[in-house]
Amino acid sequence: MQNGIRPKKDGVPAYAQRRVLAQWRGVDLTDQEKTRADRARSVGHMLPALLKHLGLEQRRSEAEIAKVWNHLIDPSITAHAQPTGLRKGTLFVNVDSSVWLSEIVRYRRKEILQRLQHSFGTEMIQRISFRVG
Predict the structure, then answer these.
(1) Any idea where the domains of the chain sit in the sequence?
(2) What's the farthest any 2 CA atoms get from each other in the chain?
(3) Is residue 16 within 8 Å of 22, Cβ to Cβ?
(4) What does the alpha-carbon distance between residue 46 and residue 42 come to, in Å, rounded to a whole number?
(5) Under 8 Å between Cβ of 131 and 93
(6) What is the percentage of the chain residues whose pLDDT exceeds 90?
(7) Beta pairing, strands 127-132 & 90-95
């Protein structure tokens, strides 16, 4: 660094490059560029907030539940009932007929809930809501 001027890699001083760009643009944007550079953040810093905003963690959990559902629950039930979503600890399951809905709710609800809670925890799945759909 000579006389307070820092040369760039190609030998052109940084202030000269800014001055030429300002002349070419017709306006000096140095202050705006500095402000923008100060607000810039790394992708690693922004990614967790973006994933939370998009709800990808929730979608991943729902996909995992759907995958485990087919291996954990009796095949005669999985042929007629499939999980569709998870909200605030309630797993929503669509059943293809009212006959199967009645069968599952009366005789199998508790067993299904216990198996899912054993696999995913009581915090994630607190209740199951079955509906015809």
Answers:
(1) 14-52, 55-132
(2) 87
(3) no
(4) 7
(5) yes
(6) 38
(7) parallel
Q: Which two tokens stand for residue 117?
A: 């809670």
Q: Which CATH number describes the domain made up of 55-132?
A: 3.30.300.180
- Name the residue with tokens 């293809």: 96
- Which residue from 114, 115, 113, 121 is spatially nearest to 130, judged by alpha carbons? 113
The pTM (predicted TM-score) of the whole model is: 0.60
66 with 104: CB under 8 angstroms? no
The pLDDT tens digits of the residues spanning 56-115 come to 777 888 888 888 899 999 999 999 999 998 899 999 999 999 999 999 999 999 999 999
Tokens of 126: 């607190």
Nearest to 83 by CA among 63, 102, 103: 63
